[in-house]
Design brief:
- There is one protein chain.
- β2 and β3 form a beta hairpin.
- α3 packs across α4.
- The protein has 182 residues and is α+β, with helices and mostly antiparallel strands.
- The protein contains seven helices and seven strands; from the N terminus they run αβααααβββαβαββ.
- It has a seven-stranded mixed β-sheet with strand order 1-2-3-4-5-7-6.
- The N terminus is likely disordered.
- 35% of the residues lie in helices and 31% in strands.
Amino acid sequence: MTSSDFLATSPIELLTPAEAERAVAQLGVILEACVSEGSGVGFVLPFSQSLAETFWRGRLAGLREGSRHTLIARHKGTIAGTVSLELASQPNAPHRAEISKLLVHPAARRLGLARKLLQEAERLAFTLGRTLLVLDTVTGDRAERLYPACGFVRVGVIPNYAVSPAGTLDATTVFYKDLTVK
């Protein structure tokens, strides 16, 4: 199955590079809202819409090259969530990808969008021949509970891994999922 076949059968949308470029402002709204409410997704406060849009523009090259795929979920016609699949580029890792920037706007949470995005990212990974997924999340964050519920295996915790939006050091929990195991 190709990524085109994936598009035809999925309720979640896979953005083309051109679509992603047009969606930078909407993706920025989600990222800014998540960081502002305290999500540990790589940024610290103060954080602005402008910085969020700069981040998303910086990811467009990976989409164009095919090393990154970005999915979105809509709620009431607006982009409300996103996740990216980062394909490992090392010669010894043609089977591996990383789940990154699983974000749902705070106003659209508790609707199952994160789970749907994650499931579709897994399906896309498998269609692209990627059978091992890895990810990390802030230890103790609400997202940490989602991954085991979706079949991800907890590897362990790295203390003091990243600075939180508020400026404190947070631990991160690392997970993996083997898509060949049912």
